[in-house]
Amino acid sequence: MTHTHEPREANWPEGRDLPDNLFRFDITAEDPKTHARCGVFHTAHGDVPTPIFMPVGTKATVKGLMPQQVEDLGAKIILNNTYHLAMRPGADLVAEMGGVHEFMRWDKPILTDSGGFQVFSHNEFMKLTNEGVSFRAVEYDGARIHWTPEDNMAIAEKLGSDICMQLDQCPGYPATRAYVERAVELSSMWGERCWKAHTRPDQALFGIVQGGMHMDLRLRSLAHLEECGDFPGYGIGGYSVGEDHETMFETLEPLVSDHMPRHKPRYLMGVGNPTTLVRAVAAGVDMFDCVLPTRTARVGTAFSSEGRLNLKNARFKHDHGVLDEGCDCPACAGGFSRAYIHHLVRQHEMLGGILLSQHNIRYLLRLMERVRASIAEGTYAEFYRDWMNSPASNDF
Known about the structure:
Layout: E1 25-30, E2 37-43, E3 46-50, E4 52-55, H1 67-72, E5 78-80, H2 82-87, H3 91-96, H4 100-104, E6 110-112, H5 116-120, E7 126-128, E8 133-136, E9 144-147, H6 149-159, E10 163-165, H7 177-197, E11 204-209, H8 215-228, E12 234-236, H9 245-259, E13 266-268, H10 274-283, E14 287-290, H11 292-297, E15 301-302, E16 309-310, H12 330-333, H13 338-346, H14 350-376, H15 380-388
Parallel strand pairs: 4-14, 5-6, 6-10, 10-11, 11-12, 12-13, 13-14
Antiparallel strand pairs: 1-2, 2-3, 7-8, 8-9, 15-16
Helix pairs in contact: 6-7, 7-8, 10-15, 13-14
């Protein structure tokens, strides 16, 4: 497919000036004993406080929830999936409807990923070249599609998110060093082409650091991105792709704390269990996203201060308690008992997944609120220690 770029001011409201501080990242507090920091990333649709968790609205909806409900849970920014929106309803249709904000009736910031992770999950239906990636949309109509970095940027600009990601190759784990090295080469090459192709002034383009579990490849990837463009922020890709958490942190912690630019947000892509968030914040990560809170909710699982709960279990059948004492989500504040939610889950009632989705999203957003408060108070090291010693850390 071939795309042509529209003028730079396309899709920006006529007569409205771009804010002077657009895409600036202000660090507002730093913890004295860890690498944790608080900040604010400025976008055209509002400020994003960090550290932040971004609920995932894959197909322009956080599954089962109205946009107002997501906002009421405390979400400051959500994520949409470029691949799925490009397939259905299509980037042109979304642009015709005013962009993703207007299309889904969400007026806060939105981040769109590149869709690369989904494309590369097609395996035998996918072919890589220096030019781009060819694949078959097997879960849609089976059409053969070719994306170049320039195509990918044109789609992102039509969708109109506040933050978009470069097209990259995300290798799984385990993988040979040669395979990961080739992924770094392609991602670096494509990152430079995305930087040159991206023109929309009200949209921030983030580069993505790849390199698997190889520290030298991670640093090579980061160095190339810093050389080829002034990206307003960086994604950290290629983690949570099959490795255990200890293996991930062997390279993630030094990469973030010692090497990534200080005055730009660092976004750990696709990671969302509470303990990993708490640990990654200590290393200096600012942004997170994951389908975990809603996907696990739909199969009856809840985060809690007791650790992860499986509401299908018979032990909840007579449980009068709420999901988590002290939680202010609609499920807990509304007094819905574990016994009732157990019943809903066992009977496959929609309300079970809806209540658990609200709870899990609120749990992570409230966790980030507590994280930001402890960093601001200079007590994050103590918060981290207490969390790791609590039953809540049993969330895997």
